[in-house]
Design a protein that fits this description.
This protein is of the alpha/beta class. The protein is built from nine helices and twelve strands. The chain folds into two domains: about 110 residues, 3-Layer(aba) Sandwich (Rossmann fold), CATH 3.40.50; about 180 residues, Rossmann fold (3-Layer(aba) Sandwich). Helix content is about 30%, strand content about 15%. The strands form two sheets. Strands 8-7-6-9-10-11-12 form a seven-stranded parallel β-sheet. A five-stranded parallel β-sheet has the order 2-1-3-4-5, covered by helices on one side. α8 links the parallel β10 and β11. α1 packs across α9. Bound molecules: NADP nicotinamide-adenine-dinucleotide phosphate (NAP) and glyoxylic acid.
Length: about 300
């Protein structure tokens, strides 16, 4: 039996080593060296080209290297009867929490303004507010959002989260459903997007949503680029309705060199690194699923294709 690996963002070497140690009978191949597509039982992938997975007629499971599976579900030829699994935490919860907490502190302490002042040799302190008065709001409170919410709340910020179905997490205020969104936005000074990209959430970070945030609010998008309407963000920043944005994900990645986000004085850009799938922390999840499938059991962490996440 063999497993085929496809990613242009991940080094296959640590994955090959992890599989060789745990599953010595499994042949590990990359897309470049796969010999017999009919012998491939498993695929471990990040953003393969549309139609590529359909070339393996005997797949028993498709394992996503990422937590988000929107790019896979976008493939019209994705084999319909093959279970699709995603990474659930797998070391990313801690990383997302670090990134989100850093972003909250960046905006709470006005660090973007000081970074711009530094470039102008401008020594000018500004008044601040205590953390307990700086209200943080998360869109989505799933596996990754919950860890971020807990870390940010533990540092003293009031934290609320908006979800599809009600969620009770100690210390986190919950707003559930579309009717609760306006009240959630009205109390939020820094909004962090932790939603999966689905037909319901695509384009949600738009002018209508920004207008419901208080003047001076900031936005952090570490979920997916197409959640955001880029032009609406630029307009809200340039009108001084929003004070800043921290962006890790984009419609097209890498972000084009001439995209206005790169040079905007109120925007911080990072290259989709909020959480990275590391073989050290994540391979065991895939190995466990291969063992389950070989025993005839269902894999863990399967994606609900109808729901889209
Ligand atoms: P998850 O466990 O599936 O959680 C998703 C959350 O979003 C749940 O709270 C869910 O609410 C909520 N939600 C989904 N659709 C909604 C809707 N229409 N309205 C309101 N709430 C909705 O996902 P996760 O593992 O935390 O991952 C979240 C996303 O992070 C991924 O999909 C991926 O795009 C992104 N990500 C980015 C990076 C990076 O490096 N930038 C790394 C990893 C992941 P219910 O529980 O009520 O369904
Ligand atoms: C990264 O963006 C992921 O979905 O894991």
């Amino acid at each position: 039996m063999s497993l085929v690996f496809y990613s242009r963002a991940d080094d296959p070497a640590p994955w090959r080593d992890a599989f060789a140690a745990a599953l010595p009978d499994l042949v590990f191949e990359t897309d470049a060296d796969v010999r017999d597509p009919a012998a491939v039982r498993y695929a471990l992938v990040w953003k393969p080209p549309h139609g590529w997975l359909a070339g393996f007629p005997n797949l028993r499971a498709i394992f996503s290297l990422g937590a988000g599976v929107d790019a896979l579900l976008d493939d019209p030829a994705l084999p319909a009867a093959v279970p699709l699994t995603r990474m659930v935490d797998a070391g990313m919860g801690r990383q997302m929490a670090e990134y989100a907490a850093w972003g909250v502190m960046h905006f709470h302490r006005g660090m973007q303004r000081y970074a711009n002042q530094q470039r102008a040799c401008d020594w000018r302190p500004h008044p601040g507010t205590p953390a307990r008065q700086f209200r943080v709001g998360l869109l989505g409170l799933g596996v990754l959002g919950e860890q971020a919410a807990r870390l940010i709340a533990a540092t003293g910020y009031p934290v609320a989260a908006w979800t599809r179905t009600p969620r009770q997490v100690p210390g986190i205020e919950n707003f559930a459903g579309a009717a609760a969104l306006p009240a959630f936005l009205a109390r939020t000074q820094v909004l962090i997007n932790f939603l999966p990209l689905t037909p319901d959430t695509r384009g949600m970070l738009d002018a209508t949503l920004f207008a419901q945030l208080p003047r001076g609010a900031a936005v952090i998008n570490l979920a997916r680029g197409p959640h955001l309407v880029d032009a609406d963000l630029l307009a809200a920043l340039d009108a001084d309705h929003l004070s800043g944005a921290l962006l890790d994900v984009f419609h097209a990645e890498p972000l084009a060199p001439d995209h206005p986000f790169w040079q905007h004085p109120k925007i911080v850009v990072t290259p989709h690194i909020a959480a990275i799938t590391m073989a050290d922390e994540a391979a065991s999840q895939v190995i466990d699923n291969v063992r389950r499938l070989e025993r005839g059991e269902a894999p863990l962490h399967t994606v609900d294709r109808d729901r889209g996440y």
